[in-house]
Amino acid sequence: MRLALLLTLASQAIFSQTPACDGNIVIVRVSEIKPGHMDGFMAAVEAHKAWYRANGIKDNEMVVSRVIVRDKDGTQSYSDKEVLTYHVNPPGPARTPNRGDAAWNAYVKQYRDSSDLKSEYMTCMPKHSMPSGH
């Protein structure tokens, strides 16, 4: 409950002071996954997305990006300890009056049970187009 309240207060302050952005506002989070809890974290992301859809928010996106790590012999693999999430066009408090309801608290608990938030950034992802073939 305390985390949900802090998230609500933080998002109110963030969204009331966001500078102009010629692109998309994106919240980037770096999360440390608790041992053996990657599936639980992914379930939390899906529950988080579902909460927004159930509350009529359809113009935001949430993307999970697995970190690629290299071991001593140069082999690369996906980390089972760290992920980045991108929340594109996160709605402000005025569009999410049901923050803190039972479903909100349930997905927040899923995140807490499966991960620790290491850092969080708000960015402006500029509009761009990818060159052909990429």
Report what the structure shows.
Helix 2 (38-54) packs antiparallel against helix 3 (102-114). With 134 residues, the chain is α+β, with helices and mostly antiparallel strands. The chain has a four-stranded antiparallel sheet. The chain contains three helices and four strands; from the N terminus they run H-E-H-E-E-H-E. The chain has a single domain, classed as Alpha-Beta Plaits.
Q: Would you summarize the structure shown here?
A:
With 134 residues, the chain is of the alpha+beta class.
Order of adjacent strands in the largest pleated sheet: 2-3-1-4
Strand content: 25-35%
Low-confidence stretches: 1-13
Supply the helix-strand structural class. Answer: alpha+beta
Question: Based on the structure given, which CATH architecture is correct?
Answer: 2-Layer Sandwich
Give the fraction of residues assigned to helices. Answer: 25-40%
Give the number of domains.
1
Quickly count the helices.
3
Can you give the mean pLDDT? Answer: 88
Order of helices and strands: HEHEEHE
Silhouette: globular
Features:
alpha+beta, globular, 134 residues, 3 helices, disordered N terminus, single chain, Alpha-Beta Plaits, four-stranded antiparallel sheet
What's the SSE blueprint?
Layout: H1 2-16, E1 23-33, H2 38-54, E2 61-70, E3 76-88, H3 102-114, E4 115-126
Antiparallel strand pairs: 1-3, 1-4, 2-3
Helix pairs in contact: 2-3
